[in-house]
Every structure is written in structure tokens, then in C-alpha cells.
Write a structure and sequence with these properties.
- This protein is an all-alpha fold and 90 residues long.
- The protein has one domain.
- The chain is built from three helices and no strands.
- 0% of the residues are buried.
């Protein structure tokens, strides 16, 4: 039981520790090129009337994704725990 709890705590800790680093470095190589391209295309033109900002979409999707990920992780830990108990009984 102690191993399962330790594995779960380490898994959650690693996910929490590495997630911000991953989102920060996904597109680092293209930053300079895309900034120059953005400035050349969009600084001189006014905003379109039907335009919606990228961040104005549904705000429940990231929460649902995190919940689904946590649920899958809990299910995996449960399945591993059940299989370990069966192995110990045999």
C-alpha cells in the first residue's frame, strides 16, 4: 500500500512540476519569426467587426480536461492496485 501511495504522490508531483515548463517552451523556436510576421501583417489594419479574441471561448474546457486527466490517473492507480493485490494472493 505504501508503494502505491508513493507512486501516486510522485506522479502527481511530477505532473504539477513539469506542466508549466512544457507550455512555456512549446513554440520557442518560432517566436521571433512569428512576432515579425504578426507586426508586419496586423499592426496597420484595424480589427475586424466580427472578430472574437482567442481567449474568449468556453472556459470550462481546460477544467474538463484536467478533470478527465485526473480521473484517468485515479482509474490507472486503482487498476494497478487491484492487479497487485491479485498477484499477492496467488
Amino acid at each position: 500500500m505504501r508503494r502505491i501511495v508513493t507512486a501516486a504522490v510522485l506522479s502527481v508531483g511530477l505532473i504539477i512540476f513539469f506542466t508549466p515548463a512544457v507550455s512555456a517552451c512549446i513554440n520557442d523556436r518560432e517566436t521571433m519569426r512569428t512576432e515579425t510576421e504578426f507586426k508586419s501583417r496586423y499592426n496597420s489594419t484595424p480589427a475586424q467587426p466580427g472578430y472574437t479574441a482567442p481567449g474568449s471561448g468556453p472556459h470550462w474546457q481546460p477544467i474538463a480536461a484536467v478533470g478527465l486527466g485526473m480521473g484517468l490517473m485515479v482509474a490507472t492507480v486503482g487498476m494497478v492496485g487491484v492487479s497487485l493485490r491479485r498477484l499477492k494472493q496467488n
